[in-house]
Design goal:
4 strands, alpha+beta, 43% helix, two-stranded parallel ribbon, elongated, Macrophage Migration Inhibitory Factor, 26% strand, 2 helices
Length: 70
Amino acid sequence: MPYVNIKITRDGVTKRQKGIIIKEVTETLVRTLDKNPEHIHIVIDEIDPENWGYAGMTTTEFRKKTAKKS
């Protein structure tokens, strides 16, 4: 029973895009590991950008900083 947890920031990802992710990850596990699709669980966690940090700052702060450089 494969379980895949995908974490993304919550900012503009559509239902359609999430459906594509779930479909394609499932297809990869079926093709690569010969798993039954009915036994594959995919969970997408959407995290507020203020709750995701890297480079010493929140994602929101990082994006503002890098946008100014562009």
